[in-house]
From TrEMBL, chain A:
Range of residues in the leader sequence: 1-29
UniProt protein name: Carbohydrate ABC transporter substrate-binding protein
Cell inner membrane in keyword set: no
Family matches, as Pfam families: SBP_bac_8
Biological classification of the source: Bacteria, Bacillati, Actinomycetota, Actinomycetes, Micrococcales
Keyword annotations: Signal
PANTHER family per record: ARABINOSE-BINDING PROTEIN-RELATED, SUGAR BINDING SECRETED PROTEIN
Organism: Microcella pacifica
Keyword Signal among record annotations: yes
From TrEMBL, chain B:
Subcellular locations according to the entry: Cell membrane
Cross-referenced InterPro entries: ABC_transporter_permease, MetI-like, MetI-like_sf
Keywords linked to the UniProt accession: Cell membrane, Membrane, Transmembrane, Transmembrane helix, Transport
Protein name: Sugar ABC transporter permease
Residue stretches making up the ABC transmembrane type-1 domain: 96-314
GO cellular component: plasma membrane
Length: 433, 345
C-alpha cells in the first residue's frame, strides 16, 4: 500500500488524537473526596473469601459508601490478574487481596502499594499474630497489607478407612497416633498401605508444600538468597517423602481435580494435609464426588513435625487508587477481630487476629461435615508456634514449575527419589537461574 | 466530475480580482475532497488498526529488546539476547513441536470434514436452514466451556471416552499424560468448535458455483464425487485458501484448551512434563509465571514470524494444487461445454 503525504499526515493527526484520548483516560484525580460525599469503593478478592455479608453490613453503617466487589475463582488466577494490572500500571481496584504465596513478588514492588502506617495501622499492630504483621512489612518498614486469614495446618483423615485398616479412628486417637515428626507420619502410612493396599495421601505435591512451609527457611534464606541446592534440611525432607512415595503411599492424584472429587469418596486415600482454608476444599470436592458427612472425613489436632502455616491473605490499597483513605478504612474494618469471626463462619478461613482466635478457641462450633470436630479450637491450637517463612520473588514459580513436575513423575513411578531431586535442580537452574 | 468543475473557469474569466482567490479555495477543497475522501472513509479501520494492531506489534518488539521484569518494568537494553535465550531454550522447541503437532491433527481433518459437510449441506436437504444452523452451534459455546467439558470427557480415571472404549475392551488411555493422546484430545476440542464455522464459509462459496457446470458434467456422466473434486473444489479455490490461512493463524495460537485441560499444574506448563504446552501457553508461562516480559515478547515475535512463514507456505501450496486442478478443469469444461452446445444444435 502506498500512502500519499496527505493521508500520512491525516493518520498522524488521528493517531495523536486517539493517543490523547487514551492518555487523558489514564489520568487520575488527585483530590480525596470528603467524609460524607457518596463514594464507590472497588474490592477484588479470590477463592472463598466470605465477605458478602460484611459488605452489606459496612454499607449499612456507612450509607455514603457503595462497595463494588469482584471475586476471582482461584488464588492462581488472582495472581495473574494482579500482576497484569501492576505491570500495566492501571486497573487495580481500590482494595486488592494478596496471597501469601506470591507476596514475595509483590514485595519487590511494594512501592506500588500504600504505606498503611499513614492510615493508622500501627495502632492496630498488636491485633495480629506478630508474624502476620511482619510479613506485610517491606524491608524499608512500610506496611502494605491488613492481614485477613492464616493457614495453620492439621490432618484431615477418613475415620472409616482408618478403622478398616485396624488403626485408631477417633479424633484423639489419631492425634496421638500421628504425634511426632514426618517419620512417624510416614511409618503409620506404610502400615496403612501394607494393611489395605491403598494409598495414604492424595499426591506428593501438597505434602511437599506442607513440609517446605514448615521449615524456618524454605526455598530462600531469610536474607532472600536462593536456598535449594545444597540445602541439607530440604534434601532430607525430600528423601523422606520420596521413600514414602516409592513405598506406595501416594495416590498420584491430579491436584484440584481428584477425579472430579470422587477420590475423596471412594477411599483412594486416607489422609490429607489441611490448612484451615483447605477444609472448604475437602468438603466441596467430597460433595462434588457424591459424598457427604457420612463419607467419614474428620479433622485431627496434630501435624507432623509441629506447627506449620500454608497460605493466608492480606488486603492492600494500591497507589493508583484515588480513594485511599476510604479504602484503607474499609480494609481495616474488614480485618478487625469481630469481622474475621464472621468471615470464618462464612468461609472457614482462620483469623489472623489474636482476639478472634481466642474467641474461636473458647467457643468452638462443631463442624457437621467433619464429624462434628471443633474446627475453630483445633485450628487455634495448630496456630500456636507458627514461624513466618520468608517468601522470595520466585517462590510460587519454584513450588509449581520446579518441584511440581518431578514430584508428579515420582508419584507415577517415572522417576525415583534421586532422579526427581536431580530433575528439580535442573529445572531450577533453567527456570530461575 | 473534474471536467464539470473546471469548465466555468475556462468559459468565464473572473469578473472581479477579489473573486479569484475564493474560487481557487473552493477548487482546492473540491480537489481535496475528490482525492482524499476515499482515504478518509477507509481511515477509521487503519487508524484503529494502527492503535490496536501496529502499535502493540512495534511495542512488543521494543519490549523484546530489553531486560523487562513483569512487575518492575523496563530495564536495560539487551539487543537480541532475549531472542537468543528463547531460541536456546528446550521448552521453546518443545512448545513449537506441540503446537505444530496439534495444528496438523486439528486443521487437516477439520478442513476435510468441513468440505464434506459443506458438500452435503449444498444438496437439496429437507429443513435446510435447520441443518445449516446446527453445524454452527458448537461455535457459539465459548472455548473455556468447551475446554472444561472436554477436560472431564477425557478424564483418565472415569471420563466418558475411557468408559466407552472400555466397553469394547480397549485399555484406558492416559489422555493427560501421553503426548500423542493429549494432542488428539486437544485437537478434538478445536475441531468440535471450528468445523461448523468453516463448513458454513465453504458452503457459501459452493453456492456461488454455477449450476450449469454441474448439470452439464452430470449429463456427461460425471459422478457426484467426480463433480466434487473436478468442479466444486477448483471453483471455490479462493475461499479454500482463505479458510486455510485463517485456520493456520488460529491453529498456531491455541491457548485456552491446553491451559484448561490440566488444572493440576497452575504454572501453565501444559501437563506435568509439558506434554501439551503450546507456544502461546509457553509465552503465558514466561510472562505471568516466570515474570520475564522481555523474553515473552521475543516469543511473541518468533511466533508471529512462524505464523507468517507457515501461512505463506500454505498459500503457495494451496494455490498451486487448486490452480493445476482449475486449469485442467477449465480447459476440459470449456471443451465439454462447447461439445455440449454443438450437440444441442
Amino acid at each position: 500500500m502506498r500512502l500519499s503525504r496527505r493521508t500520512t499526515a491525516g493518520a498522524a493527526v488521528a493517531g495523536a488524537a486517539a493517543f490523547a484520548l487514551v492518555a487523558s483516560g489514564c489520568a487520575t484525580e488527585a483530590s480525596e473526596p470528603s467524609a460524607d460525599e457518596p463514594i464507590e469503593l472497588t474490592i477484588t478478592t479470590f477463592g472463598t473469601f466470605g465477605y458478602e455479608d460484611l459488605y452489606e453490613e459496612y454499607m449499612d453503617l456507612n450509607p455514603n459508601v457503595t462497595i463494588v466487589a469482584n471475586n476471582i475463582d482461584t488464588g492462581g488466577n488472582a495472581r495473574t490478574d494482579t500482576f497484569t494490572k501492576l505491570a500495566a500500571g492501571s486497573g487495580l481496584s481500590d482494595i486488592v487481596a494478596l496471597e501469601e504465596g506470591w507476596l514475595g513478588s509483590i514485595m519487590e514492588v511494594s512501592g506500588e502499594f500504600v504505606d498503611l502506617r499513614d492510615y493508622g495501622i500501627e495502632d492496630r499492630a498488636g491485633d495480629w499474630v506478630d508474624w502476620k504483621y511482619q510479613q506485610a512489612t517491606d524491608p524499608d518498614g512500610r506496611v502494605i497489607g491488613y492481614g485477613t486469614d492464616i493457614g495453620p495446618e492439621g490432618i484431615c483423615f477418613n475415620g472409616p478407612l482408618f478403622e478398616a485398616a485396624g488403626l485408631p479412628s477417633d479424633r484423639e486417637g489419631v492425634a496421638e497416633l500421628l504425634d511426632g515428626g514426618w517419620d512417624t507420619f510416614f511409618e503409620v502410612g506404610q502400615q496403612y498401605v501394607d494393611a489395605t493396599g491403598k494409598a495414604w495421601y492424595d499426591h506428593s505435591g501438597f505434602v511437599w508444600n506442607a513440609m517446605v512451609n514448615q521449615l524456618p527457611e524454605g526455598y530462600y534464606t531469610s536474607d532472600g538468597e536462593l536456598n535449594v541446592d545444597g540445602n541439607a534440611e530440604l534434601k532430607a525432607r525430600f528423601d523422606q517423602l520420596a521413600a514414602a512415595t516409592e513405598g506406595g503411599q501416594s495416590a498420584a492424584q491430579g491436584a484440584w481435580d481428584w477425579n472430579g472429587g470422587q477420590s475423596f469418596v471412594d477411599g483412594t486415600f486416607a489422609t490429607f494435609v489441611c490448612p484451615g482454608w483447605m477444609l472448604g476444599v475437602v468438603q466441596g470436592n467430597t460433595e462434588a464426588g457424591g459424598g457427604d458427612a457420612s463419607t467419614g472425613w474428620d479433622f485431627a489436632d496434630v501435624f507432623p513435625g509441629g506447627a506449620a502455616n500454608w497460605g493466608g491473605a492480606f488486603l492492600a490499597v494500591p497507589e493508583t487508587s484515588d480513594k485511599k483513605e476510604a479504602a484503607a478504612a474499609l480494609a481495616s474494618w474488614l480485618t478487625e477481630p469481630e469481622q474475621q469471626i464472621t468471615q470464618f463462619e462464612a468461609a472457614g478461613t482462620f483469623p489472623s487476629t489474636l482476639e478472634a482466635q481466642a474467641e474461636l478457641a473458647a467457643n468452638p462450633t462443631p463442624n457437621a461435615f467433619f464429624n462434628d470436630a471443633p474446627v475453630g479450637s483445633i485450628l487455634a491450637g495448630r496456630a500456636e508456634g507458627v514461624v513466618a517463612q520468608f517468601k522470595g520473588p520466585d517462590d510460587s514459580l519454584i513450588q509449581e514449575n520446579v518441584f511440581g513436575p518431578p514430584l508428579q513423575a515420582l508419584d507415577r513411578g517415572e522417576l525415583d527419589g534421586e532422579g526427581a531431586w536431580a530433575e528439580a535442580l535442573a529445572l531450577l537452574d533453567e527456570l530461575v537461574g | 466530475m473534474t471536467s464539470t468543475l473546471a469548465r466555468p473557469e475556462q468559459g468565464t474569466p473572473p469578473a472581479t480580482p477579489g473573486a479569484a482567490p475564493r474560487r481557487r479555495t473552493g477548487l482546492t477543497l473540491a480537489r481535496f475532497d475528490l482525492k482524499a475522501s476515499p482515504y478518509l472513509y477507509i481511515a477509521p479501520f487503519f487508524v484503529l488498526f494502527a492503535v490496536t494492531g501496529l502499535f502493540p506489534l512495534i511495542y512488543t518488539l521494543v519490549v523484546s529488546l530489553h531486560d523487562w521484569p513483569l512487575l518492575q518494568g523496563q530495564g536495560d537494553f539487551v539487543g537480541f539476547d532475549n531472542f537468543a535465550a528463547v531460541l536456546g531454550d528446550r521448552f521453546f522447541w518443545n512448545s513449537i513441536g506441540n503446537t505444530l503437532s496439534i495444528f496438523l491433527i486439528s486443521t487437516v481433518p477439520q478442513l476435510a470434514m468441513a468440505l464434506v459437510l459443506a458438500a452435503i449441506l449444498d444438496q437439496h436437504l429437507k429443513a435446510r436452514t435447520f441443518w445449516r444452523m446446527s453445524v454452527l452451534l458448537p461455535y457459539v459455546v465459548t472455548p473455556v466451556a468447551v475446554a472444561l467439558i472436554f477436560s472431564s470427557v477425557f478424564s483418565e480415571d472415569s471420563g466418558l471416552v475411557n468408559n466407552l472404549i472400555g466397553l469394547v475392551g480397549i485399555d484406558p488411555v492416559e489422555w493427560k499424560h501421553d503426548v500423542f493422546a493429549s494432542h488428539v484430545a486437544i485437537a478434538t476440542m478445536v475441531n468440535w468448535r471450528w468445523t461448523g464455522y468453516n463448513t458454513l464459509i465453504l458452503l457459501a462459496a459452493m453456492q456461488a458455483v454455477p449450476r450449469d457446470l454441474h448439470e452439464s458434467a452430470a449429463i456427461d456422466g460425471a459422478g457426484a464425487s467426480r463433480r466434487f473434486f473436478s468442479i466444486t473444489i477448483p471453483s471455490i479455490r479462493p475461499t479454500v485458501i482463505f479458510v486455510i490461512i485463517t485456520s493456520t493463524i488460529g491453529g498456531l495460537q491455541i491457548f485456552a484448551e491446553p491451559r484448561l485441560f490440566d488444572v493440576s499444574n497452575a504454572g501453565g506448563i501444559g501437563g506435568a512434563q509439558r506434554q501439551f504446552q503450546t507456544t502461546v501457553l509457553y509465552l503465558w508461562e514466561m510472562a505471568f509465571f516466570r515474570q520475564d516480559f522481555g523474553r515473552a515478547a521475543a516469543i511473541a515475535w518468533l511466533l508471529f514470524l512462524l505464523i507468517v512463514a507457515i501461512g505463506l507456505v500454505n498459500f503457495g501450496i494451496s494455490r498451486r494444487i487448486a490452480s493445476v486442478e482449475g486449469n485442467r478443469l477449465n480447459r476440459r469444461a470449456r471443451r465439454q461445454l462447447a461439445a455440449h452446445r454443438r450437440g444441442n444444435r
